[in-house]
Amino acid sequence: MKIALVGPGAMGCLFAVYLAEAGHEVRVLDHRPERAKLLSSQGLFVEGIRGEHHQRVRVSVLAEDVTDAELILVCVKSYHTREAITAVAPALNPQARVLTLQNGVGNIETLAEAVGLERVFGGVTSQGATVLAPGRVRHAGLGQTVIGAAASAGQEEMLGRAAAALHQAGIETRIDNRVESLIWSKLMVNVGINALTALTRLRNGQLLDYAGIVSLMEKAVLEALCVAEALRIPLIHEDPVAQVKAVARATAGNVSSMLQDVLARRRTEIDSINGAIVEHGQRLGLATPVNETLTMLVRTVESSYGAGL
Fold it and tell me: Of 39, 86, 46, 81, which is closest to residue 60 (Cα–Cα)?
């Protein structure tokens, strides 16, 4: 299968290496010419729970280089989704499908504006990865990937091919067309973990060692649950709070993506996670004070990089 990955970050490199290793024709699209040249020359490296892997793949800054791709995995941060798909969409094969496994909400809607809802696949992944250096990633956590079609009618064949390609790459994948439910269920986990790790600089599992943090976790998730219920979005898990704690335990040693961003002094995805709960709450007339506080604190951390002690 011809597969393009947009964004050579942790997940982009992880999926690219495993898909190429499984025999698929893989290309990576980058927006930085210098990095694209480096990655094309040295290849991509993955180390960690599945051993050491090295694959040479073509990395380009030209959207025209992925014109023949059948599946496009969008692996950029949520705040770059619009920019990325706007650059790529004009060059895509009309039959190509675009898959997002990104954190947060709003990515499917942004992609659909550019390519049409019928061409968008969405889902979630529990794979955990950390960038060590450009093109070098540590695979820190295994977990299931679930994908579905945003507009499910007539998508069975291509959705099946996409799932099969991921399976062949050793990425456990199943199909579930309850895409909105999947994304909001994953959002609950991100709401309960990411901002708190970014602010405390604790690993996922360490959050559960502190009663005050656990209380904030529970309150943030319950606020998000109220928003989901008001939007009439059914969740996959009956008890989202218990699920967040279970994920924190299962990924105890992981450094969350938001903490990785803070440690690297990068912009975080707070606006599409806790910030999204605040925004929806305001529209619905629901108070979300804990998520609002977490959002403001993480934004302050971002804006004050280098200013503290």
Answer: 39
